[in-house]
Amino acid sequence: MQTLPHSTGLGFKPEHFHDLMRRPGAVGFLEVHAENYMGAGGAPHAMLTAIRADHALSIHGVGLSIGGADGLNREHLDRLRKLLDRYEPASFSEHLAWSSHGAEWLNDLLPLPYTDETLATICNHIDEVQEHLGRRMLLENPATYVTFAQSTWSETDFLTQIARRTGCGLLLDVNNVFVSATNHRFDARAYLAAFPLDAVGEVHLAGHDSEELPSGPLLIDSHGAPVADPVWALYAEVLDRAGPLPTLIEWDTDIPALDVLLSEAARAAVLLDQARYRGKQGQTDAA
Question: pTM for the complete prediction?
Answer without folding.
Answer: 0.95
